[in-house]
Amino acid sequence: MTSPSSAELDAWPVPRRTHTIRRLVAIPLAVVAAPILALYAYLLLWWLPALTGPGDEPCDPLTAGRGACWQPEQRTYWLLLAAATIPGAVCLVLSVTRTWRDRRWWPWPVATAVLLLLGGLLIGRMP
């Protein structure tokens, strides 16, 4: 038994009910995920100095607080957050735009939710 080719998959009709279910999943996902991704983008800009390293002025964690001083692990968290935010935004766009197409659709909302969860965990652990 062979699997159908992509041309054959495009020829298969998709019932109207399937499009409705897709929209019922994609639209609330977009409403929830868009502000979260905007927050992640804002935080990426906020922590952008974590990439450049410490400035010219030394920082004492005892007086300024641990979160106020540059730490080497901040760069790693920034890169991981960027690696979750950018693909999360792409997956969100694909999950919304592919609701009207006939091909496989379900991986995009799942990937969006997983990347949002990963970004939230990384933000919670950012030093």
UniProtKB/TrEMBL annotation:
Keyword Transmembrane helix attached: yes
Membrane-crossing segments per the record: 24-48, 77-96, 108-126
Alphabetical keyword list: Membrane, Transmembrane, Transmembrane helix
Protein name per its UniProtKB record: Transmembrane protein
Organism: Phytohabitans aurantiacus
